[in-house]
Each structure stands twice: as structure tokens, then as C-alpha cells.
Write a structure and sequence with these properties.
Layout (H helix, E strand, L loop, with lengths): L19 E4 L2 E4 L7 E6 L6 H19 L2 E7 L3 H15 L7 E3 L4 H5 L14 E6 L5 E7 L7 H17 L13 E2 L6 H5 L10 E2 L4
Parallel strand pairs: 3-4, 4-5
Antiparallel strand pairs: 1-2, 3-6, 6-7, 8-9
Helix pairs in contact: 1-4
Length: 211
């Protein structure tokens, strides 16, 4: 048996692997979305209940993501005909149209490049992986969920907003932050910086959002 070199999965801050693939909205390359934020999320299989609930939630939130200059991209190893039939069933029987691209990956090349599947995987079911990619094409967040647990689309949306706010304001984002809430100024890094602070809480400088 020929040995293969393991593919190292991408890490936070690394360049998102580019790809070109067929989708439910035509051919797509990840590089087409440079200049925009991207949420690339995989699902284990079409015609499954948890995946269906997630896609409906993403569809309902799509306009909010778009208002943030953020593109949604779904992916699974199922074929394009399977994707089309599944999305048609969601539209016809559940009353929701999926208007973002759903990528086919029957060769599992994209799933393996992103570490959703490794080369020794027992089957082709990807984990519920989610990658938030910035306008420079760098991965800023990686979320993995087990096959049996649905993701929170609201939390993914909150994370996109938090990442954008952190970049824009050079602030650190506290637990549970929502848009408009206070955030942290970077902590003092030298003894002189600490001495100049009016409060002993030099490491916890929570400030109102002035944006």
C-alpha cells in the first residue's frame, strides 16, 4: 500500500485553501469572495434532520449576513443532483428557499484540505465544521460540532460581528458580547503603562463602544 503524506489542516490565521467546485448556483471559487467575509460550513449529509434545521436557520439569517458583507457557503460530499433535490424539498415542503451556494465535494478534496475529513476516515460524513474567513482570505475562526448536534446560527452571526468590531476598533471582545455593548481596550504591556492607569484593574479596561 502506498503511503500518503498527511494533509495538515488549516489553523487560525492561515490562508484558507482555495478551491473551485460546482454549486447549486453554478461554478464557484473561494477566491471569488476576496474582499468579503465568508462563512464556509460543512454538513454531514443531505436529507438529514439536523442539517435541514441548520440550513433553514442560515437561510432566514442570510440577509443579516449579507448586510455584514459576509457570504454564506454550504458544503458536503454529496453530489450536486442530491443538493438540488434536497433544497427543492426544503422549498416545497418546509417553505424556505436556500439562496446561498451549496458546494458538492464528491472527491472529498475540499473536506480533506480543511481537515473536515482525514485520509483514514471510516466514511465520508464530515463533521459540522464552520470556518469564518476574513476579506484577506485568512481563517479567523474554526468551529467544530459533532454529527448529532446542530450549530447555533445566531452564535456564528455574533462571532462575525465580534470579529469585525475587533478589527475595526482594535478592541478585545468579552464573553457574550453583542453589537453596541462595551468591549475591552488592550491590556497594558509594560510596568510604566500599568503605573499610568487610574485603576488597579489595568488588565480589565472595559470601555463603552464609541463607534
Amino acid at each position: 500500500m502506498q503511503e500518503t503524506t498527511p494533509v495538515m489542516p488549516p489553523r487560525l490565521g492561515s490562508k484558507a485553501p482555495n478551491f473551485q467546485a460546482r454549486t447549486t448556483l453554478g461554478m464557484t471559487r473561494l477566491s471569488d469572495f476576496l474582499g468579503r467575509w465568508v462563512v464556509l460550513f460543512s454538513h454531514p449529509a443531505d436529507f438529514t434532520p439536523v442539517c435541514t434545521s441548520e440550513f433553514i436557520a442560515f437561510a432566514h439569517a442570510q440577509e443579516t449576513f449579507e448586510a455584514l458583507n459576509c457570504q454564506l457557503l454550504g458544503l458536503s460530499v454529496d453530489s450536486l443532483p442530491s443538493h438540488l433535490a434536497w433544497l427543492d424539498a426544503i422549498r416545497r415542503d418546509l417553505g424556505t428557499s436556500i439562496r446561498f451556494p451549496v458546494i458538492e465535494d464528491p472527491s472529498m478534496a475540499i473536506a480533506q484540505a480543511y481537515g473536515m475529513l482525514d485520509q483514514t476516515a471510516a466514511n465520508s460524513s464530515t463533521v459540522r465544521a464552520c470556518f469564518i474567513i476574513d476579506p484577506e482570505g485568512l481563517i479567523q475562526c474554526i468551529l467544530n460540532y459533532p454529527l448529532s448536534i446542530g450549530r447555533s446560527v445566531n452564535e456564528i452571526l455574533r462571532t462575525v460581528k465580534a470579529l469585525q468590531h475587533s478589527v475595526k476598533s482594535n478592541r478585545l471582545i468579552p464573553e457574550g458580547w453583542q453589537a453596541g455593548a462595551p468591549s475591552f481596550e488592550p491590556s497594558a504591556l509594560t510596568s510604566d503603562d500599568v503605573a499610568e492607569q487610574d485603576s488597579p484593574l489595568w488588565f480589565y479596561r472595559l470601555k463603552e463602544d464609541k463607534a
